[in-house]
Amino acid sequence: MRYTTRTISTVMHANCGHGNNRKLEDCARLNFISAGQGDGRGKKPDTFGRQIRNLIIGDILAVYRTTVGYVGIAQVISKPMDINNAVLGEKKVSPEIFSPDSDMFDNHGNDYKEWLVEVKWLTNVYLGTTKASGACYGLFPTQAVVCSLDNQPYLKQELEKAFNLNFDAILNNKFSVTKEEFKIPEGKEIYSLRSSERERELVKLAKDQPLKNNELPTLNNQFINKMTKKITRPASLVKHGDLILYATSLKVADLIIPNFYSIERLDPENANEKGYQRLLNKGRAKKLADYIVAGQETRDAFLPTSIFMATNKNISFNPSNNTIEIDTNEVCPFNIVDGQHRVEGLKMAVEKDSRVLEFEVPVNIAINLSEIEQMCHFLIVNTTQKSVEEGVAQRIRARLTKAMGIDDTPNLPKWIFTSVQKGEDEKALQYVDFLNSEKDSPWRNRIRMANDEINDGSINQKSFVKAIKKYILVANNPVFNTEPEERQHKIFLNYWKAIANMIGDDEPSVLFKYNGVELFCKFCVPFYNKMVNMPDYKVSTMEALLQQVFENTDGDAAGVGHADFWVKGGTASGLNTGALSKINNEMVKVLHKPIDIQKQKEMDL
């Protein structure tokens, strides 16, 4: 097992997952932070658990809860421990100490097991679940479980304000809370703040002083920092049919107000649920930041392109003086539909030069737009004006297909509407997700999903989806036209199992790259048309038919059924689309010859 070689503690971001395996309430009550599992999401073993091993004793953890924000600050007081050997409060952990509806010991016998560190909480822990109700929501979008905040000075500054702490003082041992002072009285939840006390306001979750004599601190206004903020700006009202926009401008100081905006990025681990934005390109944002900072001296920084923000709430317009008033406690957070790199670049610029706070940027604000409508407008903007990564576009089109006839959606351009109506992206993604997530699939964890920066899969989602749409979802596919979807996916999986069993799935191989997908997806429908005359679609039955094909192909297709043909740098590596088509044609010829070819060859000899 690899552990970090760091020896100096620092401030770290820690995403505390809350779900079927672990509960945030348990983390607060039992004083720990953990990560692990991932098998149900198609992740490689130890993908999440290993990130806990990046922590050392003394690290300060800004504990984050997805969709909520930062919920508390803790300090690490133990080395990383796997669940089988973990000790909390000087007692070995057991399943009984955790909440009944959690399963911390799931996968304890393999490399998906849970890893944890013991912590001391320096603040209360917010247990609310309302979106964006935690501290500093949206300031640091990351998919990492654990990562350093050394390069996030603005976020650390805002966290110190929100939690009423001084990180440097803690790291220099000038602030301490003993473990004994944090023992929990039986039946009391000292780490819970009632959600009604937040009322969309930034809450100071820190205790002003450590607990003494196991007394419960009074939850009163000392924990609440009311931040009522109203912004009045000149604006023009623009109507596009039923769509209402306000064309205005905002200062950068307005944009960086905590919880002012959020960015719904597509989650590669749960791509069917929420989010639609592409991944942030930090290099692109930094380039903009450098330009804006350089322009502060010459006063010629120029950023004319509008940021497109949206809300599902209403903003009143005063026609007498052409102004709008934004009550941040009522309306925020806005969703950034278009312009996330500009916003991130401006935030970076502020960290380098405070004069940027007064810099104004043009903004278009759409009001009364549901989440599905905002997603539609993102797709329209990024397919009519500039390109969005095709894998992200596939996910959005698939979700729109599911929403048709159920949710209200705005008018879509004809080429988008036609694709959404046909539903091919949604059908193809079901195939891809099934192959990538099934435990016994040769494709498990080999497909790099949209927005996934961690997985180094052998082929990306968009290429596999394209191949399935082109070769599998076709009129002459007997399985696609006669079998229910669940059986279609299982039959397709059996097809790839049979191929992998015959050729092998050892690396390095290009069987699971573009050429392998292109050839065997193209060959799949002719193969299915032969299989319909056989008793079943079992792997063994498919292997027998494949063996007949592989053993009797000649010419360009000779050796296609052997591992050497597919080894990286071998024959298959140099094949182009035309060559793959020739090999497919040879395989199809063998597949449909009416006599036993092998016996015929023996007779000829």
**How many strands?**
20
For the record, give the distance between the C-alpha atoms at the N and C termini, rounded to a whole number.
59 Å
Low-confidence stretches: 174-228, 265-273
Averaged pLDDT: 80
Q: What's the story with the biggest beta sheet?
A: 7 strands, mixed
Strand content: 5-15%
- The backbone outline, from C-alpha atoms, is globular
Oligomer: single chain
Q: How many helical stretches?
A: 20
> Which percent range fits the helix content?
25-40%
For the CA atoms, what is the radius of gyration?
A: 28 Å
Structural class: alpha+beta
Number of domains: 3
Which features characterize this protein?
605 residues, alpha+beta, 3 domains, seven-stranded mixed β-sheet, 20 strands
Description:
By secondary structure, this protein is of the alpha+beta class. The chain folds into three domains: 11-223, no CATH class; 230-419, no CATH class; 423-604, no CATH class. The chain has 20 helices and 20 strands. It has helices at residues 24-30, 49-52, 153-163, 167-171, 252-255, 282-298, 328-331, 340-352, 371-384, 390-403, 414-422, 424-437, 461-471, 478-482, 485-503, 514-531, 539-552, 563-566, 577-592, 597-604, and strands at residues 11-15, 32-35, 60-65, 69-76, 81-82, 87-88, 91-92, 115-121, 146-148, 230-234, 236-240, 243-251, 261-262, 307-310, 317-318, 323-327, 334-338, 360-366, 447-448, 459-460. The strands form five sheets. Strands 1, 2, 3, 4, 5, 8 and 9 form a seven-stranded mixed β-sheet that branches. The longest helix is centred in the last third of the chain and has 19 residues, at 485-503. It is globular, with a radius of gyration of 28 Å. It starts with 10 loop residues before the first strand and ends with a helix.
